[in-house]
Amino acid sequence: MKLIILVVFLAFLGLAKSQNCNNNCSRNEINYLCGKTVRNGREIRCTYKNPCEMDLHACQKREEWRKDTTGRCTRDSEECRR
């Protein structure tokens, strides 16, 4: 019984931590950048309004995104629309 309670508690703790993404991005700041990540062995590039928006997306998707270039991507990947 104690083991079950411990497992449930740890699962709840993990869930709480996973949803702790900072969403205080300024809606007014426009500083476009092209971010990239690798998903299933494929490079994905998406345009973000600012670094905060990219970091928020990375946190929510639990992925590591990095700035590729300043400004919009030459071409956004299909996955960006999802």
UniProtKB/TrEMBL annotation:
UniProt xrefs under SUPFAM superfamilies: Kazal-type serine protease inhibitors
Kazal-like domain location: 15-75
Signal peptide annotation: 1-18
Chain segments annotated as coiled-coil in the UniProt record: none
PROSITE patterns: KAZAL_2 (PS51465)
InterPro entries reported for this sequence: Kazal_dom, Kazal_dom_sf
Highest taxon of source: Eukaryota
Protein name: Kazal-like domain-containing protein
Organism expressing this protein natively: Drosophila yakuba (Fruit fly)
